[in-house]
Write a structure and sequence with these properties.
mainly alpha, binds 2-acetamido-2-deoxy-beta-D-glucopyranose, 8 helices, Recoverin, domain 1
Length: 132
């Protein structure tokens, strides 16, 4: 019982910290206004991540675009690597490798799909290496 509550609390904490860090970011504020009905908090819910609406994917693209990680349907790999290097990770080289790999895949049919595919591609490595 105790461990169950601890696990739920941990998850809550992770999402909260994650959200708190990102909500400081201007990009999220801009995109929450631009794409009505989607917020980063909503996007991060597992059921939304697994089965996102078109708006959720475009919200994600909007955030990437505001942060200069993508321009149109194109990755800005150098900026992505810069952003990764500016954060603390359990294993930085593993994160860099994942970003290199995921940003080297061919783009999807449009920028919203590409943003979502990049997100999914880096997600496992991100969760493995994020420092709470
Ligand atoms: C990364 O950090 C450096 C040094 O603080 C800074 O000049 C640069 O703008 C940062 N890059 C990004 C993408 O945040
Ligand atoms: C970090 O990741 C790299 C690349 O995946 C790997 O070669 C290395 O062994 C890892 N280092 C640690 C300390 O886990």
């Amino acid at each position: 019982m105790k461990s169950y509550f601890f696990a739920v609390f941990q998850l809550f904490l992770t999402l909260t910290i994650c959200y708190a860090q990102i909500s400081e970011n201007h990009a999220v504020d801009v995109c929450e206004k631009k794409v009505p009905g989607v917020s980063y908090k909503i996007f991060l819910e597992e059921k939304v991540i697994e089965n996102p609406t078109r708006d959720s994917k475009c919200f994600l693209y909007c955030v990437y675009e505001e942060r200069n990680l993508m321009t149109g349907n194109k990755y800005n790999k150098d900026v992505m690597i810069d952003v990764v290097r500016n954060s603390t990770w359990k294993n930085l080289s593993e994160m860099e490798e994942a970003v290199q790999k995921c940003a080297s895949k061919p783009e999807a049919q449009d920028e919203c799909e590409t943003a979502y595919e990049f997100f999914l591609c880096t997600k496992p490595t991100y969760h493995k290496n994020v420092v709470n």
